[in-house]
Amino acid sequence: MKAIIIEKSDAKPTYHGATLVDIPKPGPLEDGQALLEINAVSFNHRELWIRKGQYPGIVFGSVLGADGVGRVAEIKGGSSGFKVGDRVVIMPSVGWNKNPRGPEEAYYILGGGHAGGVFTEYYVSQQEDIFKVPDHLTDAEAAALPLAGLTAYRAVFTKGQVTQGQNVLITGIGGGVALMALAFCVAAGANVYVTSSDDNKIAKAIRLGAKGGVNYKDEKWGANLQKLAGGTPFDAVIDGAGGDGVKTFSKVLGLGGIIVSYGMTVQPKVEYTMAAVLRNIEIRGSTMGSRLEFEQMLEFVSKHKLKPVVSQVWQGLESVEEGFNTMKNGSQFGKLVLSLKTPSKL
């Protein structure tokens, strides 16, 4: 079968290969496993960081990719109720069952490391790690959902405690996690505002339900944000950037406001001052989520008929480099997907 593996490169600057290879199709299943024929997969920035050598625990020769949707091709034992032909999404990590604080055991995200990935034609999963796809989603939309949806759900609800009527700021709109966070907050009845360096992305976010947005390249973006919100303090910030933005967050948040940090793509540190402490402002780290939160996220998506934003779809694993090149230039609004099926079957 075809698969995309991470292949070590000595090039400078570091950019390891994402190589299309032939590998053996999985052998006989063990009890409790399911063999999936993969229909579509999607990219995450994590794969790009792996190729740049900026991610821990890289295992060269392992299959890339955390996000995938497929159909059950074979199943053995278990009492999950799945049957051959069922369309399923895959839990994008292993080792975290339901503890709301963090993983109960060794925890691995799928792809490029100790847990094999889904950028392949067939994938073997434990039955407890697959879930039926919400019926309203296409294969491309379902492939775009797992990692971004799980990360956003935990950030918004478990850590951010977002509820109806609250003011919420989501930074860096356009990425998969930020867009899912926007969808979740809007569905929950929150008043959502966004930041971006691209005014077109802000306009698109407003069409998706945001109340407004500001360009963070403007030195007065914090004051502009307060004006947009009518001077009403914010209850939560869902942030994937880090860096100096936290200083501004502390100014726009009300007493007891929550900053949820699910990444620090701009700068891997923040300045948390005594002024924030005195106002009971909290910073809460959040990465991915548990199997229980994944199940809850899928139920929320089904209930509200939410759809991940898909920016572009390519045909076949052989188009992997086109996807990476698009991700590197940062122009996408939504997720990037590879379809392993013909368009008529999407």
Automatic annotation (TrEMBL):
GO molecular function: oxidoreductase activity
UniProt key word Iron: no
Keyword Cytoplasm recorded: no
Domain Enoyl reductase (ER): 17-338
SUPFAM superfamilies: GroES-like (SSF50129), NAD(P)-binding Rossmann-fold domains (SSF51735)
Protein name: Enoyl reductase (ER) domain-containing protein
Keywords of the record: Membrane, Transmembrane, Transmembrane helix
A Pfam family annotated for this UniProt entry: ADH_zinc_N
InterPro entries registered for this protein in UniProt: ADH-like_C, ADH-like_N, ER, GroES-like_sf, NAD(P)-bd_dom_sf, Zinc_ADH-like
Annotated transmembrane regions: 168-194
PANTHER family cross-referenced by the UniProt entry: DEHYDROGENASE, PUTATIVE (AFU_ORTHOLOGUE AFUA_2G13270)-RELATED (PTHR45033:SF3), PTHR45033
